[in-house]
Design brief:
Layout: H1 7-16, E1 29-30, E2 46-49, E3 53-54, H2 61-78, E4 82-83, H3 86-102, E5 115-131, E6 134-137, E7 143-146, E8 149-164, E9 169-185, H4 195-211, H5 215-220, E10 223-232, E11 236-241, E12 254-262, E13 268-278, H6 282-285, E14 291-295, H7 297-302, E15 308-312, H8 322-337
Parallel strand pairs: 2-4, 2-5, 3-5
Antiparallel strand pairs: 1-10, 5-8, 6-7, 8-9, 10-11, 10-15, 11-14, 12-13, 12-15, 13-14
Region (Disordered): 181-202
Biased composition (Polar residues): 184-202
Amino acid sequence: MFKPTVIALGLTAVLSGCSVTEVCPPTANVDLPKSSVPAKSSASVKVIVLPVEISYKDATASRMKAAMLNKLEGQVLATGTKLIDRHVAKKLNKEIRLAEKSGRYNNKGVPIADYAVITEINSSDLSRAFTKRRTYKDKDGDYHTIPASCSFRAEVTANAKVYALPSMKLVKRIELKGDESAKNETNNSRCPINQSSQNTMARTASERAVKYSMELQEMLAATAPVEAMRQCEKSGYMVRIGAGTNRNVQPKADVDFSQSIKNSRGEIETFTLGKGYIVNNKHDAVKPNYSWVSIDEELAQKIHAGDSATVHTGIQCALADIDCQLEKAKNKVKETAGL
């Protein structure tokens, strides 16, 4: 089934951590056995994100609500899910929130969306701490002075609930927590901070509360069947999956593979097969309705046409955003450890 001359090269590419950048040519097709229980592509659903609400007075409320709403909408769009226009969401806000309380959404005709996201900020806090000026002597006998300073920390918590429409069945409850820290030199032990700085810290903490939570994105993640396999000397093994730019698939995105099997009692059992990533070539590897996923030799030996592939968007960070990169690394460690 597989060409042994490329096995070592394929393993080297995986173990070295270097991403595959070239799609194997059509002449490198490999026959795949077919799954007995083939997966289907997840439908591209429609989501309405209601305006974020806060039940208490806060001078930074408008900034927090706007920041959180923007990030929630961004997460929906990142999965290739259709987002209902914000003006429509605002118009239907009261109606859907009343339906949340009654448990019924009385709509006529085709539902406006498949899911509604209702978010409320529960708490926001700004703490401050003063540190006195101090002097210390290093091991060489030299003296150093650390100026007096104030440290500030903004913390925001919220709950996002995802409801199926029109049933108003609660599908998922997501806890959101974010924070932002700042420090400046001052001799004023009261640690004053202007409103503009408070607004900025509250906005950043609200953005991080959503940005560092992957639950909504994971719920809406694109799922598609494995369609074909190729194997070539330069790029090793890769499979084609039935999701592409139509679901906002991006190069290097992680992909989880699973296989469904019917047992002797007629029940469908699902087993994890392994992981891969979208080939790092936006032009060649990601097409409107499909994309190519780099996999290792071990997974290639197990995978079938029709097995399920789930594409994970993950936390998106700028290279210079150290806090975000650290959070992304934490999530990766948790994922690897199965936490």
